[in-house]
């Protein structure tokens, strides 16, 4: 499995070696490879959802996406800024994103979230109810004839 670039050998993990190559090429940022003998860049595996691959030549993902962010396949940052090429972004309002999130999760009934980049939603205040995917509890006062604890 060891490769000596002066004598040649199998293409090492984290790389690919097209026909006629003299030096292994690194798998691109946003991908990785834990296998020998890759011969084209498409042999490198796209970083999976919820993880990021921050540099070229990786043999495994760099780690899980940070809490408060989500990472789509091929993400290269643990905290993507939300632009298309970054493949992910900050968690939006009315959603939550624990560490390793692959897509924003809607706040569950009984919770709300009026902020971005949150790992969890807030509990609905006493005297109010919060349906799923709620941004603010104040728009849903408890109706007459019912009681709504926190």
From TrEMBL:
Domain of life: Eukaryota
InterPro entries: Growth_fac_rcpt_cys_sf
Gene3D superfamilies cross-referenced by the UniProt entry: Tumor Necrosis Factor Receptor, subunit A, domain 2 (2.10.50.10)
Signal peptide coordinates: none
Cited SMART domains: Ephrin_rec_like
SUPFAM superfamilies, sorted: Growth factor receptor domain
Protein known as: WBC30 protein
Species for this entry: Eudyptula minor
């Amino acid at each position: 499995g060891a490769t000596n670039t002066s004598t040649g050998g199998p293409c090492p993990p984290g790389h690919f070696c097209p026909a006629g190559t003299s030096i292994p090429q690194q798998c691109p940022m946003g991908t990785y490879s834990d296998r020998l003998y890759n011969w084209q860049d498409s042999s490198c595996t796209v970083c999976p959802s919820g993880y990021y691959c921050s540099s070229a030549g990786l043999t495994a993902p760099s780690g899980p996406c940070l809490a408060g962010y989500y990472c789509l396949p091929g993400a290269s940052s643990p905290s993507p800024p939300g632009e298309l090429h970054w493949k992910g972004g900050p968690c939006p309002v009315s959603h939550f994103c624990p560490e390793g999130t692959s897509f924003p999760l809607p706040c569950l009934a009984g919770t709300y979230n009026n902020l971005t980049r949150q790992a969890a939603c807030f509990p609905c205040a006493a005297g109010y109810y919060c349906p799923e995917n709620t941004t603010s509890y104040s728009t849903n006062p408890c109706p007459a004839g019912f009681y709504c604890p926190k």
